[in-house]
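Action item from last meeting closed. Structure (135 res):
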């Protein structure tokens, strides 16, 4: 287990820590919050991230269960409120990358450069031209 591992079993690595926030590397397959089916969640590991504070940190945003990436946590109520406001006001830049492998072709796609679906503004439309690199 590395020094950056959060929990004793499957805790995500700690990428950044200061007085207000933590940034962790959430692995794909680990939901942030408990769901109806139960099972392990990131919430199970938050107590290990107190670093001497009386309460555990809380997620300032979410990443889907199958999404890996940087997750920002507020270390106390005031920090969490400030982080939530930054996310709500669109003052946090996010970049999403999709990686895939199919027979004879691998590559990456940046959905942030793709057109959005009219009924689902968070999803990219597969009909648009996106930046794709294949190798």
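Sequence:
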């Amino acid at each position: 287990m590395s020094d950056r591992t959060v929990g004793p079993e499957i805790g995500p690595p700690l990428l950044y820590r200061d007085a207000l926030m933590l940034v962790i590397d959430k692995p794909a397959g680990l939901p942030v919050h408990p769901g109806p089916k139960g099972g392990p969640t990131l919430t199970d590991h938050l107590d290990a991230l107190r670093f001497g504070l009386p309460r555990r940190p809380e997620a300032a945003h979410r990443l889907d269960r199958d999404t890996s990436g940087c997750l920002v946590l507020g270390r106390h109520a005031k920090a969490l409120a400030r982080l939530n406001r930054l996310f709500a006001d669109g003052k946090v830049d996010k970049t999403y990358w999709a990686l895939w492998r199919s027979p004879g072709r691998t590559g990456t796609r940046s959905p942030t450069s793709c057109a959005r679906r009219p009924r689902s503004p968070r999803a990219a439309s597969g009909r648009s031209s996106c930046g794709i690199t294949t190798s």
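Note appended to the action item: The chain has two domains: 14-88, 98-134.
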